[in-house]
Amino acid sequence: MKLKIEDARTLAVEALMGIGIDEKGARVTADHLVDAAKRGMTFGGLPRILAISERLNEYGDRRRPIATVHETPVSALIDGGDNVGYIVAAHTTQLAIEKARQSGIAIVGANNTYYTGLFAYYVEMATKAGFVSFCIGNGNAMVAPEGAAEARLGTNPIAFGFPSQGDPVIWDIGTAAIMQGELMLHMRVGEEIPEGLALDKQGLPTRDPVAALAGAIKTWGGHRGSGLSVVVQMLGALCGGPVISPGICEMAFLIVVIDPKVLMPGGEYPARVTELADAIRSARPLEGAPPVRMPFDGSARIRRESEQNGSVEIPDVVHASLLKLAGQRKSM
Q1: Of 276, 262, 296, which is closest to residue 130 (Cα–Cα)?
Q2: pLDDT per residue over 186-198, tens digit each?
Q3: pTM of this structure
């Protein structure tokens, strides 16, 4: 079904507050989820509130205030306090941006968090400040390394963001063949996943999302994606948490933010990004293929269309579940 953007935002805030998230944290999280919905990333949008609710029910409310464990002018280590990652990563990213403004470069990591969302959101925060950035996140064992029949890696997203004179250039991928949010959305709406993405507990191919969640997801890109996933897992270890998270908890988020002026003090870097982007977009496409795009072109276009239309898509079953969560708050 379609919801007006502001109605979707209100529903997200009320549902999050219904499961115990404070208003400030609910608004930070809802902004991320609605942005994902506007970009057509349904799995990364409002359905994630249901996963947060299920996680809180499974583990209990163990939250404590976000705290700085160690800090220098160019770095910080953050204890996320078992708060949901949308809140922790937004805090971490903003701190990295502030440090980069002062020192030209910053690296900030957070541990003890979970469910961080779409990493394009965080690197776009940095591009809006005129900075280059990249971020990674690791997590619990859900993904089988290339050649393995059982999980040892997280879905391990990685994203890069570059400011330009127009839309930023953002490359955001998961190193798994299918992300956990996509898998869970398939489960909620009762749909099989595409072939070749997952294994069951016996190591056999499966299209059943429930069997995949109990078994292992395959890596994206074969041995290349597997190697990249291992790199992300090791970068996450810089944040001081477990090498492999013991469950939907104790996950890591790491972001590096760079002011291009540390190398190009004249401020011409966004123009150079634009020059490259324009050159790539102008390449002659293959016969019958659409025009060549830069990373994030599609997301930016879909977001503008959603904003013009004033609405986002949400599965009916998810909408009904969120109304129940929002109702919990109203009945308190």
Answers
A1: 262
A2: 998 899 999 999 9
A3: 0.93
